[in-house]
Write a structure and sequence with these properties.
three-stranded mixed β-sheet; 6 strands
Length: 196
């Protein structure tokens, strides 16, 4: 760049700086005190309006947070309400069954039928809420769903087969909530098979 093309910093500042007097010379009139006061009042009114809007929004957010917390607490507190409503008829049926057992002229086949119907009601209620049983009788032992109570030597079934279900297990949807308690088979020892 040639020396004649260089501009000094002072010259640049002189061009960039404009004063109210310079603006007045250019045709624009400076604002008088009354106009400035009106603009300031207008700006204050807008700031107050925005501040009030901000306070209202904060109050709305706080109310929403409290309502959400209350709804969540109620959801946890009353989550089992529908489940309980399904189980109450089962309890009623059991109470009627106990009363029928106490009666002197109770017929055993009717009592048995009543107990079976009650069990069916309970099974239906559990299934409505995604609770299914794990009954692994004669299935291969699966440690993810079964808990071995003991091992039994059996030649008539394959090793690691569930030969007896002591207590059924249950799933809530796909999550195990209680494993099935089982007795598992194992192959007889060689000395036992040779003697027979």
């Amino acid at each position: 760049m040639a020396d004649k093309d260089k501009v000094s910093v002072d010259e640049m500042q002189g061009e960039a700086v404009s004063t109210p007097a310079a603006e007045a010379e250019g045709g624009e009139q400076p604002l008088d005190h009354g106009e400035l006061t009106a603009l300031l009042e207008d700006a204050r009114d807008k700031a107050d309006e925005h501040w009030n809007q901000c306070l209202h929004l904060q109050a709305d957010i706080e109310n929403l947070r409290k309502r959400s917390e209350r709804d969540l607490a109620n959801a946890h507190k009353f989550a089992l309400e529908r489940f309980a409503q399904e189980l109450l008829p089962v309890r009623d049926s059991l109470e009627m069954g106990i009363a029928a057992f106490a009666a002197e002229n109770a017929e055993s086949n009717k009592l048995s039928e009543g107990v079976e119907l009650t069990l069916q009601m309970l099974t239906t209620a559990l299934e409505k809420f995604g609770i299914s049983e794990v009954n692994p009788q004669d299935e291969r032992f699966n440690p993810d769903y079964h808990q071995a109570m003991s091992i039994q030597e059996r030649a008539d079934v394959e090793p690691n087969t569930v030969v007896t279900v002591v207590q059924k297990g249950y799933l809530l949807h796909d999550r195990l909530i209680r494993p099935a308690m089982v007795i598992v088979s194992r192959a007889p020892e060689a000395s036992d098979t040779e003697q027979t």
